[in-house]
Amino acid sequence: MSGRLDGKVAVITGGASGIGEATVHRFIEEGARVIVADVQDDRGKSVAASVGESARFVRCDVTLEDDVAGAIRLALDTWGQLDVMFNNAGVVGAVGPIAETDSSAWLKTIDVLLNSVFYGCKHAAQVMVPQGSGSIINTSSIAGVIGGLGPHAYTAAKTGVVGLTKSVAAEVGVKGVRVNAIAPGSIPTALTANLVAGDPTDLEAVARDQRQRYGVTPDARDIANAALYLASDEGRLVNGHTLVVDYGRSVNGGSPRFASSEPKMVGVAPLQA
Questions:
Q1: Cβ contact 20:38 at 8 Å
Q2: Is 2.60.120.260 the CATH number for 9-265?
Q3: What are the structural domain ranges in the chain?
Q4: Catalytic residue among 154, 214, 232, 250
């Protein structure tokens, strides 16, 4: 590997599985040392152990500010620095029609998906601003840039992540700290598998769905590569940006219908959704 993160220290929330786990491995491949922060104790310990001395696990409930701050403290206590904060932990959260959405489930969803990002940005900035460098990366979603692609609370939270990213970037960018978001499409993880197939272990159902729709098979490593770019010096001019990684789904639903050469596609009859 090229060592694009040589000497850097990262904290990754939700690092025990899915996009977080893929990013742990990708960062370490490129020379980083990583704090794996998650509520999944066994999985988190296993991920950290699998890469040896380059990672540490810490139990972290991202709805608790002290836990998020504690993950950052562990990075500082262990390796003396913090260069990358990846606010990635997530859940599907409250589902259902707006008229029937449970208020307590709504608030819990906002806690996990949006308030946690605020905690991560806040405590990372306390370290990065004084040192004059750092990269904060927040996981949004294509549901955060287009309506109708996720449940209401999820969509509201992920849209909030985009706004918070821009706002914090405007403040700390002049102080050497970059803040960006990633908006993944449907990536085969337990979260999306549960939505697509009703089974969090059926990752192939998500992969199959995406192959049928768009002709590609996405992987959590695709998002890890996006995070790697934003974390590395290669992304040094990127600040306040939301990087959409969805193979064009949010552009036109991934549909090739307007590229058809058949005459019937050009003003002859209304297109059917």
A1: yes
A2: no
A3: 9-265
A4: 154
